[in-house]
Amino acid sequence: MTTRTLRRWFVVHKWTSLVCTLFLLxxxxxxxxxxxxxxxxxTFVGDDDPPYEVLPPGTPxxxxxxxxxxxxxxxxxxxxxxVNPDDDEPAVLVSMAPSWQALKDDENYTDRxxxxxxxxxxxTAKVLEQSRPTDAxxxxxxxxxxxxxxxxxxHTSLFAYLPGRLFLGAMGGVFVASLVSGTVLYGxxxxxxxxxxxxTDRASRLTWxxxxxxxxxxxxxxxxxxxxxxxxxxxxxPLFGLWRVTDVRQILRPYANLPVPSQDHLSxxxxxxxxxxxxxxxxxxxxxxxxxxxxxxxxxxxxxxxGATPLRARLFTPVLVDARTxxxxxxxxxxxxxxxxxxxxxxxxxxYGGMPLKILWALLDVVVIGVLVSGLVxxxxxxxxxxxxxxxxxxxxLDDAEGAPVSALxxxxxx
Amino acid sequence: MNALGPExxxxxxxxxxxxxxxxxxxxxxxxxxxxxxxxLSALLGQHGIWLALSWAALSLPLIVTVICLIRAWRRPSSKxxxx
Lengths: 415, 83
What we know:
The complex is a heterodimer.
Chain A: H1 3-35, H2 37-44, H3 64-74, E1 79-85, E2 91-97, H4 100-106, E3 116-121, E4 127-130, H5 143-157, H6 161-189, H7 204-234, H8 236-252, H9 269-279, E5 283-289, E6 300-307, E7 316-322, E8 328-331, H10 336-349, H11 354-393, H12 403-409
Antiparallel strand pairs in A: 1-2, 1-5, 2-3, 3-4, 5-6, 6-7, 7-8
Chain B: H1 4-13, H2 26-45, H3 49-74
Helix pairs in contact in B: 2-3
Keywords (chain A): Membrane, Transmembrane, Transmembrane helix
InterPro entries (chain A): PepSY-ass_TM (IPR005625)
Protein name (chain A): PepSY domain-containing protein
């Protein structure tokens, strides 16, 4: 490698790093509490739900039709919008609203929420809990809620919604470029140094450089993977949008102009769950939305199924069941770009290998923070040297004991 | 990240005896492979031994880092490092 190409790589590393460091520091720091959000909620807020009835193990679940009928009886004249069995508790969440139109109108008012939910025990079909009525005084927000909310929004969008997401996605891409250029430089820097050398007996600048190299190498692959999957995750809104205007529109075209049938005449919800489970073998059905929902078909139940293994757990396959007849219309595996997005998610969240993996994720994150900080120190140090040299060139006498030997060592810094 | 200039100069002009070339890549490659294995084994293997292997593989880069740091600050006159 000639000095010229090396210098180019150096410029690439310097600028890509400078551009993304601040934002990476933000996502690294806010990512830490998000990693443990489940534990934080449990510890500081706790679960104030009434305890589940203790039933003999193996008690079968009640039919979802019974639960749906009960929900209708509680709010006659309202519509059901979705039915979602809980992932890990024996509960079923039924969402309702006065009408689809009322839900649509909510979008125009920030403080109006006409939708509400009822939580049933999945086995006994008894009502466990209901959402707070809209006219009830608002529940005071907890500190945990506020802090976690801030972390979440900073981490995913810098409080700037879609533009913020795309911007952070771009920063993820720049970060990957910085890692690649850093690796090239590492090969050059370490030519005469054994791996892991940290020179503590010479200029502090060399200590920082060695630290930067050591911490960077140790976390390189992890940072590449988490950075790249973070980048992919930020693209989810446009990717889902693309899917919606291509495949989804194609599938729903024959039904698009049909009227939404009254909910009194729809086929069985339980049967739709069973049909969907058969249509997507190996998947579990995680929820159903009723015909008329804004993203779906006017005449179909949309059932969301997902893979049962950690690798496939975020791989959703929607299934359409005709709500007039109960017949299967089809299962629609997602296009490759969404499958790729969904497979890349666990690799970003680190939530697929128990608590030890989360702790390792946190430690690696802290080391990456170390890489960012040491990089900043190296950059700031050089700036100081350059400034001092310019001042000296102008005839100022700087008796800065610390600056002199360092600038001698890093003579080129004066450029 | 900014010390490129002096470093390349030193390494090309310095004549100190310790500045013989060393193999640069074995350690980074080993750590990278360990990380890759650790990330994938929990994802594909899901439970039992694969989870334990994943935890072990992902801990090793961290352990190596800590060892290097301890060495460097225990013997400040030497360069620390593993070879």
